[in-house]
Amino acid sequence: MRVLVTNDDGIDSPGLAVLANVAHAAGHEVVVAAPSHEYSGASASLIGHQSDGRLELTTGRPPGLAEGVRSFGVRAAPALIVFAASYSAFGDRPDLVLSGANLGANTGHATLHSGTVGAALSAATQGIPALAASVASADPQHWDTVTDVCRVALDWVVRHSPEGRVLNINVPDIPPDQLRGLRKARLAAFGAVQATVKERGEGWVHLAYEELDAKHEPDTDAYLLMHGWATSSLLRTPMHDVADPAPPEFTTDAADREEHEVAVSRGRTMSTGTG
């Protein structure tokens, strides 16, 4: 399979090499294309730096990347990189997208804002299976644990290729012999942090952030991650919802006139055809 690896931490992040090397060791054709600088919190943004309509590339290579794996820095958000890759910007269209491994967990409803998850969702909307992986530390010390979990996750995505869905993986930053395992999990009702408005002034607002306690939400990704489990969750791409109540509708006179004109035109055509 052709595999694209990207992230939102930037081309110099060691997390890129973890995913790329796992895919490379599994025999896949791998290319790394990641932002030239950090795009954390970019969600599925299509922001990029273009010159004369050309998306700009830079040099860059994540530390520890296996020999023979091509690497591009791109002056763009990760979702735009994936979007461009789906049109063969970095070689043939990928069969699979791996995003991460992100520095910091992506749990709960905060996954909405994640550039790591946003890149994977961008792939899924293009019909490309995707995996988003994160480690619960800003400075991970146990990449071997992440490697072990991502190897299992990659094998699952390759075998099942869930259409319109992303496999979201979170791994605690603990030694492999302390990992309790990998558990499927529902999303917590919050993310890793909560924001509050600390102060307001003329023309400005000061936001304060605090880490939240996940102890009260058993079986969620945040809870299990805190208790030594790696977690797996399936996320859907945007889709039409037919649930009640139905969204509002109305019809104007213009629509009525158009329907009348179409009906008259069809009547004339039928009449002409029977002469």
From TrEMBL:
What the entry lists under Pfam families is as follows:
SurE
Instruction: State the UniProt keywords alphabetically.
Output: Cytoplasm, Hydrolase, Metal-binding, Nucleotide-binding
What EC number(s) does the entry state? 3.1.3.5
Question: SUPFAM superfamilies in the record, alphabetically?
Answer: SurE-like
Catalytic activity reads:
a ribonucleoside 5'-phosphate + H2O = a ribonucleoside + phosphate
Q: Which PANTHER family does the record cross-reference, listed alphabetically?
A: 5'-NUCLEOTIDASE SURE, 5'_3'-NUCLEOTIDASE SURE
By what name is this protein known? 5'-nucleotidase
Q: Which organism is it from?
A: Ornithinimicrobium cryptoxanthini
